[in-house]
Design brief:
The complex is a heterodimer of chains A (483) and B (329).
Chain A (H helix, E strand, L loop, with lengths): L1 H31 L7 E8 L6 H16 L1 E8 L1 H13 L6 E4 L1 H10 L6 H5 L3 H6 L2 H6 L1 E2 L2 E2 L2 E2 L7 E7 H7 L13 H10 L4 E3 L8 E3 L8 E3 L14 H15 L21 E8 L3 H9 L3 E5 L4 E2 L1 H4 L3 E4 L6 H13 L1 H9 L6 E3 L5 E3 L1 H6 L4 H4 L15 H11 L1 E2 L13 H19 L5 H14 L2 H18 L1
Parallel strand pairs in A: 1-2, 1-3, 8-11, 13-17
Antiparallel strand pairs in A: 3-14, 4-5, 6-14, 7-11, 7-12, 9-10, 15-16
Chain B lengths: L1 H8 L5 H9 L2 H6 L8 H29 L3 H7 L11 H8 L1 H34 L6 H13 L4 H11 L7 H4 L6 H14 L2 H9 L4 H12 L1 H17 L2 H6 L8 H17 L1 H6 L2 H4 L4 H35 L2
Helix pairs in contact in B: 4-19, 6-19, 7-11, 7-14, 8-11, 12-13, 14-19, 16-19
The chains are: A alpha/beta (483), B mainly alpha (329).
């Protein structure tokens, strides 16, 4: 009996040793790659639903890359919904990878933690062309403590919030939407729609727009006003403008222009269902065209603000080089090529010519069914827009308009400023909870601001908002001095 | 039913029920009522209560089935309805369209569940048996070791590092099986079960007859402990069938995604779309492939139905196993 157990034990131990040996061998072999002659394999994790034809397309990509930079790329897509959690675990566990997609506050946090490689030096050498191709505002926006930690996708750099109208209803009642400048201007139209169109909700649920530059997001009470060249951070919920706007919103709510569950509803109001009159959204050049196409009826937009470059609008899509990369320079060479070489950019984005798309005589393209079914890549996450082929249905000056749009935008006061919340973490946690309770109800007009705004502000005071405002101001002043 | 109960449980009145059948007199029957049965009023109250309760348990699932047969148009206009204004088979047509992925995921789920349960039951009972035996010198240490993991766990990131970098399981089917094999709580249950239901004297007599340790375990301890083993087998079957989190962490390859993880993915993608409306608006085709509300419900139906249908069959063995355990000694 004892003998058998000993044998079993020995067996188990030897299996363990074999497993350990296997894994260590793997590690050493991948390190060797790329040093001499052998192409280095770049591991690239990006967002989006995994596609069937990825291997097919990347065979072609790798053929090209081997010649150009002596490297190959293994692209792994992680599904939209899984992305946040999975990418965070991968970063925290120090998994070996070269390039990883990131955006917004995740980018800032991970860069501050040291998960990404600072790219400034490489942007002067390996990424020289890339740096020249990018809009300077984008690079300014992704700087953290003076260094660049990721390559933003060169696309629309600014945000412009618009009111979008259902054109059929606008025409039917002969509204002049160009006169709309503020929330108050909507009133007469909403009234007509409410009285005459029974199947239509006048306002597709949205949160009232306020002209502020937010430190975190629109529901947190820390903001710089866009206008007036103000260097002072404030709680925007204490301003008269906010009270005024929310009062208007509340009167709309009481009049039944919004759905009753506006504050809690998660309804996304899909465009292709024609049950709304006005909605709010972020625009880009020719957005109406895109929206009309996906809605299958016409929509028309009027701006609620001038285009403005904010941290969120420049950090919507970033490819960063992981600190665990064994060969960051190769990764940079690849990113450089991806953003400047039209052939590679279109190959990665649109797939193979003749299989996934067709090109006509003018160099414009049409998707074939295979592109939608088996190689549907999210364009915005990959990189530079300006080297993409245009679709036959696109206006020919699309990218020129993008450039004009970017140039016309003004920089927000906090562009490039990233608040480090470590000193006031517990206050911010408390304030987040309070905001989650009050903001949705107030911003959709579901409650009376005369009563609830003071209540909200009182609770914020108790949670220590003054301390946080002070800390933000301190960090902001320091940052401003360095500029 | 009440007659039958009378006959079996009150042997003293054997002749009475026979007479009753002939007379058909209900009044007499009341007098000789079985003292162990419920009062008719109480009986109906309990029955109504249980009926309502059962209905409340079943209703959500029925509702899901109804929604899965509702047309998308009617969901958008009127929300969920118990009797939809428009019926439709679109959701199931959609699922038929993605049958390759669905069948693949079904296969993965079944393999993982079967293989996982077998390994899991074996490992847990081995461990629990060892620490239940007084002859085992280090049983206190190993009990503590298992118990310790119930109170403190390594956390997500260290677990991830062990599985992906140390064991190299990423993107293999073992990543779905091995992390769930051992469960400290089940080990403790089984240990208690072995100590209570397998007496030392049986083992001793087996040993005197010259049985090896393996033989004692598989031919004596195992059959004696079937009720306990059936319990943890059922738990771990459900655990494997419903598990999606390990797949989220360790699987990138769409061919290895189990059914529940597929469902979760769709749900999470819809949530992402809600929060990032602008991404969807700029490239509509990305989300055109996502199923609609009714299709989601149809997926829930086909993911739950197999286990719900097969459960009563398992349950039969499960209950008989438990009764054997209760009657013993």
């Amino acid at each position: 009996m004892k003998k058998r157990f000993t044998i079993l034990l020995a067996l188990l131990l030897s299996i363990g040793t074999i497993l350990a040996a296997c894994s260590s061998k793997e590690g050493s072999s991948s390190e060797k790659d790329g040093k001499d002659g052998k192409p280095y394999e770049i591991k690239w994790y990006t967002i989006g639903t995994p596609q069937k034809d990825t291997d097919k397309v990347f065979e072609e990509v790798n053929k090209y890359l081997k010649e150009e930079i002596n490297a190959t790329v293994k692209m792994t897509q992680i599904d939209w919904g899984d992305w946040d959690q999975k990418s965070q675990v991968m970063i925290n566990s120090g998994e070996a990878m070269d390039i990883i997609f990131t955006n917004g506050s995740k980018y800032v946090q991970n860069a501050q933690k040291g998960a990404f490689v600072a790219l400034d030096e490489m942007l002067e050498k390996e990424g020289k062309e890339l740096k020249d191709a990018l809009d300077p505002a984008l690079l300014e926006g992704v700087k953290i403590d003076g260094s660049i930690y990721g390559i933003p996708a060169n696309k629309e750099a600014a945000r412009q919030t618009v009111y979008t109208f259902n054109k059929r209803l606008v025409d039917k009642y002969g509204f002049d939407v160009s006169t709309v400048k503020t929330l108050e201007d909507l009133e007469p139209m909403l009234k007509v729609i409410k009285e005459n169109e029974s199947g239509v909700t006048p306002m597709a649920t949205f949160k009232a727009y306020l002209p502020y530059d937010y430190i975190f997001n629109n529901e947190m009470p820390f903001a710089f006003p866009f206008e007036g060249g103000n260097d002072q951070v404030i709680n925007q919920f204490e301003s008269d403008l906010t009270m005024q706007t929310y009062k208007t919103m509340h009167s709309y709510y009481k009049a039944g222009y919004l759905k009753e569950d506006a504050a809690t509803s998660k309804d996304s109001w899909p465009m292709d269902v024609e049950n709304w009159f006005v909605r709010m959204g972020d625009s880009q050049p020719y957005a109406d065209l895109l929206w009309s196409r996906s809605a299958k009826y016409d929509v028309v937009s009027v701006p609620a603000e001038q285009p403005v470059t904010i941290n969120d609008s420049v950090s919507g899509s970033i490819q960063a080089i992981s600190a665990t990369s064994k060969n960051p320079k190769k990764a940079m060479e690849f990113l450089n090529l991806l953003n400047t070489d039209p052939y590679l950019r279109n190959l990665v984005d649109k797939g193979l010519e003749g299989v996934h798309y067709e090109k006509n005589a003018d160099g414009m393209i049409t998707d074939l069914p295979a592109r939608i079914e088996s190689y549907n890549i999210p364009t915005y996450s990959i990189g530079n827009f300006f080297t993409l082929y245009l679709y036959e249905t696109d206006p020919t000056d699309k990218w020129e308009q993008f450039k004009l749009f970017n140039d016309s935008a003004s920089a927000a006061p906090t562009l490039g400023f990233h608040f480090n919340n470590a000193p006031v973490r517990s206050e911010i946690a408390a304030i987040t909870n309070i905001s989650k309770e009050f903001y949705p109800a107030l911003a959709t007009g579901s409650v009376d601001p005369e009563e609830y705004l003071p209540k909200y502000n009182k609770k914020l005071k108790e949670a220590g908002i003054d301390k946080v405002l002070e800390e933000i101001q301190k960090q902001y002043d320091e940052w401003k001095k360095e500029q | 039913m009440p007659n039958k109960l009378n006959q079996t449980q009150t042997p003293g009145n054997v002749s009475q029920p026979l007479n009753l059948k002939k007379d058909g007199g209900d009044i007499k029957r009341k007098k000789v009522r079985n003292p162990h049965s419920l009062h008719p009023v109480m009986n109906s109250i309990v029955s109504i209560f249980l009926g309502v309760f059962t209905f409340m348990c079943v209703f959500p699932f029925l509702y899901v089935i109804i929604i899965s047969f509702t047309s998308e148009e009617s969901i958008v206009r009127n929300g969920f309805q118990i009797i939809p204004s428009e019926w439709s088979m679109d959701a199931y047509n959609y699922l038929w369209g993605v049958k390759e992925q669905l069948l693949g995921s079904y296969g993965i789920t079944i393999i993982v569940t079967v293989v996982g349960t077998v390994i899991s039951v074996l490992m847990i009972s081995f461990y629990a048996y060892a620490i239940s035996r007084p002859q085992f010198k280090y049983r206190r240490f190993f009990t503590m070791l298992a118990f310790f993991t119930m109170l403190f766990s390594g956390g997500l990131v260290p677990t991830y590092i062990v599985v992906t970098q140390f064991l190299g399981l990423k993107n293999t089917i073992w990543a779905l099986i091995l992390p769930l094999v051992m469960n400290a709580f089940y080990i403790i249950i089984m240990r208690t079960f072995f100590m209570k239901s397998v007496s030392e004297s049986i083992l001793e007599s087996a040993r005197i007859d010259g049985a090896s340790e393996w033989r004692i375990f598989f031919q004596i301890v195992f059959p004696l402990s079937l009720p306990g083993i059936a319990t943890i087998a059922l738990f771990s079957t459900l655990g494997y069938w419903n598990d999606w989190f390990t797949a989220l962490l360790y699987i990138d390859n769409p061919k290895l995604v189990p059914l529940q993880a597929l469902l979760m993915k769709i749900e999470a993608n819809l949530e992402f779309m809600r929060q990032n409306v602008e991404v969807g608006l700029m490239q509509q085709s990305l989300f055109d492939t996502l199923p609609q509300e009714s299709a989601k419900m149809a997926m829930v139906v086909i993911a739950t139905l197999p286990i719900a249908v097969s459960y009563p069959f398992f349950q039969k063995y499960f209950i008989s196993g438990l009764t054997i355990g209760g009657v013993k000694e």
